[in-house]
Amino acid sequence: MSGPETTPPPPPLDGSTPAPPGGSSRTLTQRTLAGVIALVLLLGLAGVVFLVPLNYVVYRPGLTVNVLGDSDGKPIVEVPAGSSYKTYSDGGQLRMVTVSVTSPDTKLHLVDLVGAWLNKKNAVYPWDSVYSKGESNDQSRAEGAAQMASSQDVATAIALRELGETVPEVTTIAGVVSGEPAAGKLEAGDIVLKINGKATDPDAMIKTIRSTPPGESVDFTIKRDGKTMDVEVTPTDHDGTPKIGASVGVGYDLPVKVSVNIDPSIGGPSAGLIFSLAIYDTLTPGSLTGGNKIAGTGEIEPDGSVGPIGGIQQKIAGATRDGAKLFLVPADNCDEAVGAVDAEKKNIRLVKVTTMHDARESIQSWVADHDATLPTCKASS
User: Fold this and answer.
1) Which backbone phi and psi does 138 adopt, to 5 degrees?
2) Has domain 30-133+147-165+257-381 been given CATH number 3.30.230?
3) pLDDT tens sequence across 207-234
4) Contact (CB, 8 A) for 97 and 296
5) How far apart are CA 331 and CA 307, in angstroms?
6) Which CATH number fits domain 168-253: 1.10.260.40, 2.30.42.10, 3.40.50.150, 3.30.470.20?
7) pTM attached to this predicted model
8) What is the DSSP string of 197-260?
9) pLDDT tens digits for 246-290?
């Protein structure tokens, strides 16, 4: 059936060929198609922005804690009653600093990351530069707790050595994983005297456990809270390797067990330097801080050196927020530290430290004279 009658359009005034009948409809269809395609692409992009998680981690300034203060009514640095060591108070503050880090299981999207990136106090890192493949929230917390416990023992040892004490190194249990064979039998801080009747070091202990036949137990002789005891643990198979679910490290046979009563949700080794300084201050008369607010960070090593840490800029931002005027920076973090947000505006002095001893001397010099010449963090130092 033929269509309705139409009248041919008049020729254009410029003499060009007139558009064929129906041309306008095809033009409209092309525009509509282009709009539909654009809409689909826009919706796809929105899906990426709002629905597809990206493998990144966000660092933000975390809380700071005055380690010379109290927690739940008792000193954070606590020496057991009846100890031969006297304790002394300090009217100032030594503040440990933290970073708020998104957990390994947190799903972050493009909108989250852009928002974090636009805040100069935050930092965004690839997921695999912070966590290990397959790492879960529980594993991350367990590792952080083990590192925190180990850092406290090292800090105590270094503080006592700074006082002139002799502190021997020993093999210790650094942490225990819930639900594994060692849980309820071994505890973080246990000193391993013998394994299967033989004296051991960390490497030998791991080798012994991994060579244990299926179903057989490992005999531990440990020292806990000054008492010696025997414990049996039967390893379980983990992908063909016998394991007991405990991490081992080098610790110390301490003449006094100093407790650092920090919120257990705070993990990691980076407060070691501040712990060591706070323990030293608590065990010596007078005020190390001179009544000032001092903050700092750094992993304390068994030889007393101070190792680098992550999140230095976020930690300095947290310290300036909470009023610190001196910040102790591990030497290897100096380049990052000088770029910290508002460091100069907040009038905080960044001091480079290489050992706990150097840090203590810098604090004492600064307390005596805020304009004293100190090792200073500078770019490419």
Assistant:
1) -65, -40
2) yes
3) 999 999 999 999 999 999 889 999 999 9
4) yes
5) 8
6) 2.30.42.10
7) 0.73
8) TEE--HHHHHHHHHTPPTT--EEEEEEETTEEEEEEE--EEETTEEE-SEEEEEEE--SS--EE
9) 988 878 888 888 989 888 788 888 899 999 999 999 999 999 999
